[in-house]
Design goal:
Blueprint (H helix, E strand, L loop, with lengths): L1 E4 L6 E8 L2 E5 L2 H6 L3 H4 L10 H13 L7 H20 L2
Antiparallel strand pairs: 1-2, 2-3
Length: 93
């Protein structure tokens, strides 16, 4: 996980992107206190459903390479190579 600071309020969270569509975020107490959108966006249960500014900050970090986004084509190619090697090992007497 990599630290990402919100471009709006500078709340810093830890982020991991498993793909362009999946993001894991860990908030700590300092980030929750610093978030400018948190008070207005919290649900009745006290959960922050989304912070648009942080979402935009994470996207910007991914686009600039500050956080890594795995390339599914690279992962697929590696899996295919491993499968090919395993097939070759099985066919060898």
């Amino acid at each position: 996980m990599r630290p990402v600071a919100c471009l709006r309020c500078e709340a810093t969270v830890l982020v991991r992107k498993s793909s362009w569509h999946q993001t894991s975020i860990q908030w700590d107490g300092a980030a929750m206190s610093a978030c400018a959108e948190r008070p207005a966006a919290a649900t009745d249960a006290g959960r922050l459903e989304t912070c648009r500014s942080l979402r935009d900050s994470v996207r910007q970090a991914a686009l600039t390479g500050a956080i890594e986004v795995p390339d599914p084509r690279t992962e697929d190619a590696a899996e295919n190579d491993a499968d090919d090697q395993a097939d070759g090992e099985r066919s060898t007497p």
